[in-house]
Specification:
single chain, UDP-n-acetylglucosamine1-carboxyvinyl-transferase, Chain, 4-stranded mixed beta sheet, 24 strands
Length: about 450
């Protein structure tokens, strides 16, 4: 198993490049199954989830060509040829590895009129129900049943008629899945309280480029007029907004005062207004340019309370990283997660590094400087965003930090240690024995 070993206290210098969005790449890959022919998707990140989902897609008979090189600054392209999608199934042994595989339900139903998809796996924290996905598919006219751990969906003779569905609560994943099925339905479909995240908008833009008729992208109401066929396309994925936010926090933590750190290949609008406003309140100067962001180091970070919310609110996927930043701020603060109220498994590990944190329900109370100094220790990853928060903490901790089980990290951060090495951080990937992690 792999771990990351970090020698803390090294300054972040120069620049770093954001990869393609993971949360958008996987829906784009699913969308390619709706067209009879090869589609090319550019700016696909080199992530374990991408390789896993490629294998899920191959099971259907589609061909996936993806051969990334070792240069972390080079955008990658993927070709998915869906000319021969003849096996509408996503098996347990692959789907259990990540939740996003459940997008195959809508994609295969939209392409083949039927789908058999295993119930998903993914990160180990909290319940992630797929009830909204199933109810939305049913609202379009599909017959859905569960059988031996699989969800089996079938359109009636003549195809899905389309329908109306209101999501409570709003869900990115369910919005994507319902869209995948609705764009080739026979009639009109309406999704109310739909997700408005950039991931959904860019995904919808690809469907439109393929010939889908969708109105309302970026709003809470989507209206879809079903079409008979979709066409293969060439399309570019957007930059990863969570990676951008993570690097902005890293820059605030580790850039020397008065120096500037640059982040390239960005779309700062995708961060949402709330994150950018809260970041400004920390007193860390930031410049948003055309395709880049520059962060200036400061002597003192100001404490800022945050509350996560759906886009354009503060992203839940940045709350663990923000907690680390607030541990280095000049005073107390609170981090409240109203999206996933139990997403705090990083807290005990950050405490091992010396962070003074207390969880009370859906809120973490952070006791910032001068009351805490982080010191290196052996810590364990529990999920994707928790993993990167431990890396950030290790960067500013005194001494050596070993972050174990970084396979979680590899699901969502493209070549992270290579990018950080180029930016001056002393970080290495090593293999270790789970029974002797200190070795």
């Amino acid at each position: 198993m792999d771990k990351l070993v970090i020698q803390g206290g090294r300054p972040l210098t120069g620049r770093i490049t954001v990869g393609g969005s993971k949360n958008t790449a996987l829906p784009l890959m699913a969308a390619s199954l709706l067209a009879d022919g090869p589609s090319t998707i550019h700016n696909i990140p080199v992530l374990q989830d991408v390789f896993t989902f490629s294998n899920v897609i191959r099971v259907t008979g589609a061909r996936v060509t993806y051969s990334p090189d070792d240069d972390p600054s080079t955008p990658e392209s993927m070709v998915i040829d869906a000319s021969d999608v003849h096996f509408p199934e996503a098996p347990y042994e692959l789907v259990k590895k990540m939740r996003a595989s459940f997008y195959m339900l809508g994609a295969l139903l939209g392409r083949c009129g039927k789908a058999k998809v295993s119930l998903p796996g993914g990160c180990a924290w909290g319940p992630r129900p797929v009830d909204l996905h199933i109810k939305g598919i049913e609202a379009l006219g599909a017959e859905v049943r569960e059988e031996a751990g699989y969800v089996i969906a079938e359109a009636p003779a003549g195809g899905l008629p389309g329908g109306r569905f209101t999501m409570e609560p709003s869900s990115v994943g369910a919005t994507v899945n319902i869209l995948l099925a609705a764009v080739t339905a026979n009639g009109e479909s309406v999704i109310e309280n739909a997700a408005a995240e950039p991931d959904v908008v860019v995904f919808g833009n690809m469907l439109q480029a393929m010939g889908a008729k969708i109105d309302g992208l970026g709003t809470s109401t989507l209206t879809i007029q079903g079409v008979e066929t979709l066409n293969p396309v060439e399309f570019s994925n957007c930059p990863d907004r969570i990676e951008l936010g993570t690097y902005m926090i890293a820059a605030a933590l580790a850039t020397p005062a008065g120096e500037t750190f640059r982040i390239d290949s960005t779309n700062a609008d995708h961060l949402g207004d709330d994150f950018r406003q809260r970041f400004a309140e920390t007193g860390v100067p930031v410049t948003y340019g055309d395709g880049f962001v520059e962060v200036e180091g400061v002597d003192a970070i100001q404490p800022v309370d945050i509350v996560t919310a759906p886009y354009p609110g503060f992203p839940t996927d940045l709350q663990a990283q923000w907690t680390v930043m607030m541990s280095q701020a000049e005073g107390p603060s609170t981090v409240r997660d109203t999206v996933y109220t139990d997403r705090f498994k990083h807290v005990p590990e950050l405490r091992r590094l010396g962070a003074q944190l207390r969880v009370d329900g859906d809120t973490v109370h952070v006791n910032g400087k001068p009351n805490q100094t982080l010191s290196g220790a052996i810590v364990m990853s529990t999920d994707l965003r928790a993993s990167v928060s431990l890396v950030l903490a290790g960067m500013v901790a005194e001494g050596r930090t070993d972050v174990l089980r970084v396979y979680h990290l590899d699901r969502g951060y493209e070549k992270l240690e290579h990018k950080l090495q180029r930016a001056g951080i002393e970080i290495e990937r090593e293999s270790y024995d789970e029974n002797h992690p200190e070795g």
